[in-house]
Write a structure and sequence with these properties.
148 residues, three-stranded parallel β-sheet, alpha/beta, 7 helices, single chain, three-stranded antiparallel β-sheet
């Protein structure tokens, strides 16, 4: 389900502007990231903002427009999460063990790891960073990681 389109960069005559026009014709929201008036790559986005697009400088700009349309609460940003989770300086030993058990010498996608239930993305990132600093984690192209 597509509710809208965000145009980040568009020259005066570009495919991005065609995408924006088609989105408007379908009744979808159009958002545009403003750019320097001196940059020809921003001429299209700045024009969209003058005509009809909602200016976007941060994710909350999009969320605030889409929240009433969706009619449901969107997931909270990580910094808005529970104070207990924030105050936890490091992962619990069982969380660290669970993350390490998901890894092997065979590369696995970071996206797949973060989507797995049972461990928060914050904990996953912390453990992976610890492993990388310790020299036990190898990063591969395409967002893959493996144990060394």
């Amino acid at each position: 389900m597509s509710l809208g389109v965000v145009i980040v960069e568009a020259a005066k005559r570009s495919g991005s502007l065609i995408t924006a026009r088609l989105a408007l014709e379908q009744g979808r929201e159009v958002f545009a990231v403003p750019g320097s008036p001196l940059d020809p790559r921003a001429e299209g986005t700045n024009s969209l903002i003058k005509q009809c697009a909602t200016p976007v400088t941060e994710a909350d700009d999009v969320v605030s427009v889409l929240r009433p349309i969706i009619g449901a609460d969107l997931p909270a940003r990580e910094e808005d999460t529970d104070e207990h989770e924030k105050s936890q300086a490091e992962p619990a030993p069982d969380e660290r063990t669970r993350v390490i058990a998901l890894l092997s010498p065979t590369p696995v996608s970071l996206d797949d790891l973060i989507r797995l239930p049972g461990t928060s993305p914050r904990v996953m990132r912390m453990v992976l960073l610890e492993l990388e600093i310790a020299g036990r984690l190898e990063r591969h192209g395409g967002g893959l990681v493996s144990l060394i």
